[in-house]
Amino acid sequence: SLYVSEYFSQSAQKLSFYSWYGNAKLFHFHVPEDTVLLRWLLQASRGKGPECTSMEITVHFRHGAPPVINPLGTRFPANATVRPSYSISITLGSAVQNTTFVNVTTPAAGDWFIAAHLPEAAGRIEVKGFSTPCPYMFQADMFVLRLTDMPVLEPGVPMPHTVVSPAKPLHVKVFVPKHAAGMRFQLSSCVTSERRACTVRVLLGSITLPQSFQRSLTCTGSINCSLALESPPWEKWLQIVVESLGTANASVSVEMLASFTVCRPGSTSSFLNFISLNQSQAGARPGAAGSSAPAAGEAPRNTSGQRSSCLQSQPVVREDLDVVSVRYRLLNGPSVPVSSLSPTLLLLNLNTGMDSGGSLVVSLLLNKTSVSLANATVAACVSAASPVLSLNATQNCSTAFSQGYPLSVSTSSAEAMLIVLYPQTDDWFLSLQLLCPKGQGECGSGEAKVTVFAYLTPCFNDCGPYGQCSLLRRHGYLYAGCSCKAGWGGWSCTDDTKAQTVGTQNLATLLLTLSNLMFLPAIAVAVYRYYLVEASVYTYTMFFSTFYHACDQPGVAVMCIMDYDTLQYCDFLGSVVSIWVTILCMARLKKILKYVLFVLGTLLIAMSLQLDRRGVWNMMGPCLFALLIMVTAWVHHGAKRRHCYPSSWKRWVFYLLPGITLAFIAISVYAFMETNENYYYTHSIWHVLVACSVAFLLPPRDKHKKPWAWSQKLTCRYQICQNDREELYAVT
């Protein structure tokens, strides 16, 4: 046999601490057909700085779809099917780099996914630029060993083969046709080269993760041994591995035979389905009055054909709506007839390669008036690759190499729903059959009407009122995840274990919005001291900060007067410009120079915020530059007056020192104390402290300007104008 090795690699990704599925870094690979060995090379590394500590990286594997993970231990939505993913842990201790190998023999061909993440996030809100997080990198490479000339076992034809040695197993494959109800594999004439009784082990099927349903058969001696499989995967190649368990130098000769039991489906003809589809979409066409096509909901059924066939196939149309959004429509109407004679089968096509990143929802509704037997139950199974053709009361829903998902409806419970999270790329089948407690004879020829709704959605229920459905991308592959808020958690934001109450949400909104009213004293002081431009900036900041936080709330207490991004930008701009104009006002510059710096600084701040809105230097840069201007101006004033500036000790003790202290406390709270849990009151404290510090730091008004005298300003009378200039001319 000729083996070919292939190597596939993807670029490394920076890992994140886990808080929702978007933090997990996804790797997508495609394993070719006839692969006999798959080896993953997992490389993890971290930085060398002092902030880098030992860390545990969790890596999840899955075949056919992204792995469904739950690192936080939250609850999944009701009716959702959850099977734990296969995962390993990689520890980065004293070593900067870790290399791990994972081997999979006879892997299933198709899509394979790897998801990696760090432990749970601490929830602390870090200001970008204040601290340097440690970079943890992860890269996954894939090596495959593929057999180029794998022998094909033809159904019904005995095939003699030789296993050269235990170290070199025999690989063959057989193609499973469509509508195969069962498969029987038989091994006979097992003889060693030493003419002794041989012992071999036969492995049927491929390995899939997280669960593998590979079947094993051990044959001893020359007697025939066989294995029967129910519902093998349709229209797929099935790998068969024969391993010798004898001595190392002895070869083994065997003869293999594969046979299939084919199920003959009974359904309406494709021509009638095509006519029905056209009529349902565009109505009856001219000249089609004599057509014998049935109306929607009146599927023609032949009773004799139904008895002789092993399943009744219902035509289903796949309708693509959007990215990872599909609706399945039954041509004969949403109501499906279900009998006890043979199962009713619906095909749900999810094999495009772009459907595994959402949630498959199947809903059943029983028409109670259509069931004549009160104790009858409609059993249903949703399975991938091959349908379940033998439904019974136990509802095992298992096929040859997979485990399906059971559903049932009855007169006592007429509704049932199933949610398959990240369904694997394949053909999915929905099988329905009427069951009676005393067997098929009790049901007779009766039937039940079941309304079927099936669709693929990016996020189930659009993540609910406390979540946001986000479309994620890894190269060309798209998948969806829910980002929860207001303390809610879970895959679809349905876990209310840590959820905030409505009262807490209202309190958070009131604190974050009403705390901005503390700018009113600063505005009043600025107006009283004739700093009208500064007062306008504070008013702007107060307004947009109030309505930005009213729109930024995660719960139900939300009010947005304009686009969220616009409110956020205006809030950040007002905050930085307020600090800029306050420090420049304290510098006591000439008016023309001060206003030029006001405008020029505002334009530069607006530009920097557009480049990086959350960068720490967008705030620290203008602050430091304004402080440099203020210190330079104060030194100039002090040198000119030959004493300290400001000269009054009262100004320092009662205004400047309290204002500076409040500003430093506000910066400490903003940079080091805010978390997701305490954000609503720590950020409110930031609002109060900043507004109060502005009121303390504003300098007194110019000496030549008198306080506002409203009675003099509003009355209409002649006034004597006083010239403050010094008369310098000489009298002769």
TrEMBL record:
<feature type="transmembrane region" description="Helical">
    <location>
        <begin position="592"/>
        <end position="611"/>
    </location>
</feature>
<feature type="transmembrane region" description="Helical">
    <location>
        <begin position="617"/>
        <end position="636"/>
    </location>
</feature>
<dbReference type="InterPro" id="IPR000742">
    <property type="entry name" value="EGF"/>
</dbReference>
<dbReference type="InterPro" id="IPR021910">
    <property type="entry name" value="NGX6/PGAP6/MYMK"/>
</dbReference>
<feature type="compositionally biased region" description="Low complexity">
    <location>
        <begin position="285"/>
        <end position="301"/>
    </location>
</feature>
<protein>
    <submittedName>
        <fullName>TMM8A factor</fullName>
    </submittedName>
</protein>
<keyword id="KW-1003">Cell membrane</keyword>
<feature type="compositionally biased region" description="Polar residues">
    <location>
        <begin position="302"/>
        <end position="313"/>
    </location>
</feature>
<comment type="similarity">
    <text>Belongs to the TMEM8 family.</text>
</comment>
<feature type="region of interest" description="Disordered">
    <location>
        <begin position="285"/>
        <end position="313"/>
    </location>
</feature>
<feature type="disulfide bond">
    <location>
        <begin position="484"/>
        <end position="493"/>
    </location>
</feature>
<feature type="transmembrane region" description="Helical">
    <location>
        <begin position="652"/>
        <end position="673"/>
    </location>
</feature>
<keyword id="KW-1133">Transmembrane helix</keyword>
<dbReference type="Pfam" id="PF12036">
    <property type="entry name" value="DUF3522"/>
</dbReference>
<keyword id="KW-0812">Transmembrane</keyword>
<keyword id="KW-1015">Disulfide bond</keyword>
<keyword id="KW-0472">Membrane</keyword>
<dbReference type="GO" id="GO:0005886">
    <property type="term" value="C:plasma membrane"/>
</dbReference>
<feature type="disulfide bond">
    <location>
        <begin position="459"/>
        <end position="469"/>
    </location>
</feature>
<keyword id="KW-0245">EGF-like domain</keyword>
<feature type="domain" description="EGF-like">
    <location>
        <begin position="455"/>
        <end position="494"/>
    </location>
</feature>
<feature type="transmembrane region" description="Helical">
    <location>
        <begin position="679"/>
        <end position="698"/>
    </location>
</feature>
<feature type="transmembrane region" description="Helical">
    <location>
        <begin position="507"/>
        <end position="531"/>
    </location>
</feature>
